[in-house]
Amino acid sequence: MYDMKQSMTLIPTLREVPADAEIKSHQLLLRAGFIRQNASGVYSYLPLGRKVLQKIEEIIREEMDNAGAVELLMPALQQAELWQESGRWYTYGPELMRLKDRHEREFALGATHEEVITSLVRDEVKSYKRLPLTLYQIQTKFRDEKRPRFGLLRGREFVMKDAYSFHSSKESLDEVYEKIFQAYSNIFRRCGLNFRAVIADSGAMGGKDTHEFMVLSDVGEDTIAYSDTSDYAANIEMAPVVVKYEKDNEPMKELEKVKTENQKTIEEVSAYLNVDKKKCIKSLLFKVDESYVLVLVRGDHEVNDIKLKNLFEASTADLVDAEETKKILGVSVGSIGPIHVNNVEIVADFAVEAITNGVCGANEEHFHYINVNPGRDFKVARYADLRFIQEGDPSPDGQGKILFAKGIEVGHVFKLGTRYSEAMNAVYLDENGKSQPMIMGCYGIGVSRTLAAVAEQFNDEKGLVWPANIAPFHVHVIAVNMKDEAQTSLAEEIYTELQRNRYEVLLDDRHERPGVKFADADLIGIPVRVTVGKKASEGIVEVKVRKTGEMQEIHKDDLLPALADILKNL
């Protein structure tokens, strides 16, 4: 049972907005006394912050347990040998915090736990009869972020729930993936968040199936493309373009080279030649793994490097810088075009194929070609969907149009396959006694990040407005004047009675001015405030709903049913 007198706890509220807090959640969590910074990207969770964290963790445990996952706890201090086995000791980069013990043995502070869990299960599970198995933990993680920012949204030490599943078949992985996906949806719904499950890129991990859970917010670092009429949502780099491009009936004209003095960008060239950007062909040189590829898109489109990488089934696809481009193609970036290019492969977005009498660079400084026609004037090795989706494009699921939103990633579900089990020899014996690598899934939730995301979505000009499910307390009881005996005794009576009825109560018993108490209550954002003031001698209190500002006077005898009714509807 949570109960607390304000005079006996640590809730250091601030009137001023801290100078280095850029976003609402960071400002309000600091001002309302939920967190304090110890070092860059490292925070203490003060009593209120810890309570919200615990509430989120309780919801996570309930839903994960319902999905058939079992909780354990692994060490934060991990042997380098395990990371060397998987190969990530060499590839993870400077985000991995590395250290040595007194015997010069190397360790890492856990950024994630694939290696530890794989070694654990490898040593304990030998038969298909013990699979599937899903294990999870809630634990502090460490990543040496280059630029910690936005408070709890991008820290160097943070609380995470990570889960790992082990299977003997892809069907079994699909089944558990679906269960955890549903559990995550339930978790974020119960936290009150406005979120989308988004199709994501699997990055260096490989594999096709991965979803991120994104909380919609203007401060999000990711752009989500979502349908205005269905629940389709994808990371912008993953959304396929389903536009059907039609060639116009314009007859082909003769190719012509024209002078375009110092006009380099699509904007400059289209304005100078007075042609629509849709008629221009943008040519960009990429390095895909070890090969150079010239990528063509329409002038009003942008190359999607993730789609390019996936087209070639490559590990990397990077735009080549100006200096290297000149070395390979013999011309500066603003003058590149596909005509008479023989030393690199040319690929193009579908939209380029429909261009008639277009414009492109002439591979000669200060010149462009006009009346360019793909197929006639240059050859394309293959056409593919290579551009970023745009707002207004049709939704890939065939329902509605695409809109963009910013998102904060709070969860990620991922089919790992055998990436770690093969590298670390985590095998089991199948029905025929044959050794097989375990098939794995991994599933993460940023717990402290979720707290910040809720604070980002639930606030107003006065402070935080916590959803009842994860608020640090249900009810904030305020004794207006601690020198007034009728007020103090009624406040104590209500405090005790609410506790007895299993409400979580914060009692403001401080010797402070009423204005200070009310401002702090608004800042802290507990769902219901019960003010014991001038009518205490009559047994009447004022009840205020934080979310709506709705206020009513209620006799103490009617308080319990009134609170039950209010909280039920929040």
Structure explained in plain terms:
With 570 residues, the protein is α+β, with helices and mostly antiparallel strands. The chain has three domains: 45-76 and 110-239 and 404-455, Bira Bifunctional Protein, Domain 2 (BirA Bifunctional Protein, domain 2); 256-384, YbaK/aminoacyl-tRNA synthetase-associated domain (YbaK protein), CATH 3.90.960.10; 464-568, Rossmann fold, CATH 3.40.50.800. 26% of the residues lie in helices and 29% in strands. Strands 4, 8, 9, 10, 11, 12, 13, 22 and 25 form a nine-stranded mixed sheet that branches. α1 crosses α12, α2 (47-66) runs antiparallel to α6 and α2 packs across α12. The protein starts with a strand and ends with a helix. The model has no long low-confidence stretch (mean pLDDT 93).
Outline:
The chain has 570 residues and is α+β, with helices and mostly antiparallel strands. 26% of the residues lie in helices and 29% in strands. The protein folds into three domains: 45-76 and 110-239 and 404-455, BirA Bifunctional Protein, domain 2, CATH 3.30.930; 256-384, YbaK/aminoacyl-tRNA synthetase-associated domain (YbaK protein); 464-568, Rossmann fold (3-Layer(aba) Sandwich).
